[in-house]
Amino acid sequence: xxxxxxxxxxxxxxGLAVERxxxxxxxxxxxxxxxxxxxxxxxxxxxxxxxxxxxTTGVGAGLVLGYATLAVVGAGAYVVGSRVLRLPxxxxxxxxxxxVVVNTGYLGLPLVRTLLxxxxxxxxxxxxxxxxxPMFYIAGxxxxxxxxxxxGATARERLRTYxxxxxxxxxxxxxxxxPDALAPDVLVDAAHGVVYVLLVxxxxxxxxxxxxxxxxxxxxLPLTRTVGAAVVxxxxxxxxxxxAASAIIVAVPDAYxxxxxxxxGINSLVxxxxxxxxxxxxxxxxxxxxxxxxxxxxxxxxx
Length: 303
Description:
Layout: H1 2-22, H2 24-50, H3 61-84, H4 89-100, H5 104-115, H6 121-147, H7 155-164, H8 167-177, H9 185-212, H10 225-248, H11 254-260, H12 267-275, H13 279-302
Helix pairs in contact: 1-2, 1-9, 2-8, 2-9, 2-12, 3-4, 3-10, 4-6, 4-10, 4-13, 5-6, 5-11, 5-13, 6-7, 6-11, 6-12, 10-11, 10-13, 12-13
């Protein structure tokens, strides 16, 4: 947990420093990093992770509840964004994405390992692989294509953008179809290592984006109504719904409850960049939800 928090802090600080030193040139670097993550690193990790994932009938009712919870809060984000706050389409799409694309890998797994112990790690991994992964490369990217300003004007153009500009989805399909022989141990281990590269790169880009919003030489990160809605939906409504449903319907592993309460995923930045969603809203929601969860995790670990 300490190493993960230190890596996040260092990456964000590095992004802030680079943006303040190089200004607009750092924005070009950030875009290049996101593009490399989206077209190279993520397909690599997705393919070699899913090629070794054997899906059985014992997935578990808790995973079904997880999908149902994300569907409900995603619909709620759409209603809040489009009807209550009356946001532009790109901002409404960003709000939905930061609510349904969740950081259950980079933060969820270390938190479960630290606070619950190694015995609870297996169900946490199952949640991350079978819920958070598809929610990014299927649902999250579909939302980006539907709401993004750079995805096309017509429904046909947006569909074509979703299919052709979705390398993680193509890699996921290939990984699920590929035999184990195409995923040797050395490449699977390398894919697991690249996960930490994604962590550092993603939070570096977050730092650059946040610094770009700074005024008068210091960083401002206002908790606006829209960002507040993202925080409440992601960190309060989603875990509360999941906990209530699991208490009524079926008992689930404690790790599932932790994963349901994780912050917005760093991959939401990738979606926003690839399809033209509101990057300012995405960055702010990601920063606030991550900060709250890290603070809660540090306090829980100290107790």
